[in-house]
Structures
1.
Amino acid sequence: MSAPNQALPVDMFIDLDRSGPVPLYFQIASRIEAAIHDGTLPPGSRLENEVALGNRLGLSRPTIRRAIQELVDKGLLVRRRGIGTQVVHGKVSRSVELTSLYEDLERSGRTPETRVLSIETGEADERVVEELGVDAGSAVLHIRRLRSAGGVPIAILDNVLPPEFADLDPDALAKHGLYQLLRARGVTMRVAKQRIGARDATSQEAGLLDIRKGSAVLTMSRTAFDNSGRAVEWGQHCYRPDLYSFEMTLVER
Amino acid sequence: MSAPNQALPVDMFIDLDRSGPVPLYFQIASRIEAAIHDGTLPPGSRLENEVALGNRLGLSRPTIRRAIQELVDKGLLVRRRGIGTQVVHGKVSRSVELTSLYEDLERSGRTPETRVLSIETGEADERVVEELGVDAGSAVLHIRRLRSAGGVPIAILDNVLPPEFADLDPDALAKHGLYQLLRARGVTMRVAKQRIGARDATSQEAGLLDIRKGSAVLTMSRTAFDNSGRAVEWGQHCYRPDLYSFEMTLVER
DNA sequence: AAGTGGTCTAGACCACTCA
DNA sequence: GAGTGGTCTAGACCACTTG
């Protein structure tokens, strides 16, 4: 008796769609996540145990487990053997995802603007060969852009793309994010390896970002790979540190 | 016929320990990861399909899937439905994990040194209440340390801990990392929410880090939670950007 | 002793890709 | 049509925590 569980309202799980394309574990996870965000499941509260939850919803335990695991990976829930599953304290914050600055700005309600500073094809040098895994001397595409929001410059974006993207439309780059354009060509990003650091701004960067020369810039360099495992983009970006930072949630596996 | 698979050597999977505490999926994942690192499975090569691999090893498909999923989450493998599983191109790089600077330095072969600049208990102000979820006015522990390696200063570490850690030994802090001490007290970090940014160094910071006043520092603020979901640490760190940066691998889920 | 999550099995059906 | 990964089921046994 006296289960100290936070029994989730039954009607939270009605309308599960077993025929549509959305997996059951995803539907469950979404509903639990919503309950956490709207306070139905406050920080520290315990979830019903996996077996009981499965029975109540008419789902197998592995399916329930998978749903819960999604939220554990997001840093919303913590599991302890012999104890149960609880909601993590502390405000929820979005994890670092495989997104672009353009999408970050869009999501936060700002309107990103892009000025293409230069775009040209050139032979891949040693560093590009290393980062993109293309043949030496390949005709890779170099792009240099200035990204702003509300008229205020936020970042300088230097990117190099493999030869297959050499025909990328410069005009489209001014209107859309690079990742949007790549997706439109059927490329889906799957893995990215990146490094975040800082350094003093060069005078050129200071001019473009409207900051004092020698003051700090936040830097990020990233190589992104598509779902076939090939490198599709190498970028070196620098950000105005008063306008941008990287937020992330780490989970011990 | 003509499977273009990279058949893994059978003997790579002998000696699986079914009675020990190490899960089978973990043993499998470790061996595949080793094969990727030592070149047995080169970038772009295909893995044997899940069912066949399971049969060959006498394991069920879910177990094999779990092993592969571990490596997909690490960014080492990519899966495509109808196609197969392949090794990602590009050099492997460690993912950002829930570790401390102390452990980062140890792992890279350097010997971390710590100077405790100050350590004192004080009443929790509004910000601390917000970050740690403690009661207002609680006697929290403030620690300020300078972390070096090889005699060169690398970072200034400001941390605040909940009242239960107010008796932390200052001498121990000079010899061990904060996370090591917490683990020794039975605390295991599970989730951390952090933000990485940059700014100009204050003159005090510049003095401690042996850099020019006003030059860039890399900053990270983090709140860490234990396996019960309670906040156990809030830190605000600043790093010499020429000596430290954050490396990570992102995977689209 | 009772309750919890952690692991594992042996299947099943489906959606997608490619020849 | 053959092969691949994606999802789901209905159990089983175990390790750990708490009373």
2.
Amino acid sequence: MPELPEVETTRRGVAPHVVGARIRDTRVREFRMRQPIPRDLATVLQGQRLVGLERRAKYLLFGFERGTLIVHLGMSGSLRVLSPETPPQAHDHVDLVFDNEVCLRLRDPRRFGLMLWTAEPPAAHPLLATLGPEPWDEAFNADYLAALAHSRSGAVKNFVMDGHVVVGVGNIYASESLHRALIHPTRPARRVSRARYASLVSAVREVLESAIGFGGTTLRDFTRDDGKPGYFRNELRVYDRGGEICLQCGKAEIRQKVIGQRMSYFCPQCQR
DNA sequence: CAACGGACCTGCCTGC
DNA sequence: TGCAGGCAGGTCCGTT
């Protein structure tokens, strides 16, 4: 579920319900995540007011009075706003219960996500310190990409998915962005022209903005736990469309190929 | 440093 | 119907 648009949609959906409220209770039912949830999390959070909710890359940063709760949703995580009395279901690992009778519940079947506490500025945390710029940061531009790519012989798709190059471009949107920028995903990063990188910068921004505009994938309403199909799926031009005719050229069939252990989709006609 | 494979997990879908 | 196998939106780590 979570690529950057879903994380941002989650942030926007959740924030109005919890920012300004104070933690009344923290229930952790499962500590085993990508990194273990701190044993003393409940003690640390108790009574603290949530001051703000930010996003950096695919991390959600819950800014409390005395530090930051860092949350990552991994491959299968989600956050929902519920009544504190709602019985937990399988894989509902953590509840943050606020004094406004809101329960923020973390579910993550695969447990690739994480929930950590830091008293330091979150940008200094080892997980965040070495991340590349946000897609909308002016530092993310064609010159930057071309310069970085100089030492990169690997596929450009892996290059744009590298969080130390730019954050937030996951597997779906990597395929989508490269298709819009007319760049073949297996082309060595160093063989992509500056002009093409300029197109890629625009394409990444457009695709992500568009997806956020559609509410990410599923959850428009965070106070219920419906949300299955995902409107943004209809907007995808190549992802999961292997064998279909390319919407760009109307002639070639979309191909699929594993690149860097991830399935990738592209038009052999449009993308070079 | 960069590239690559493997690891971490569960659920769901497909095909036999 | 049951079950094995493959695949899934992420990222870190170790090895070469």
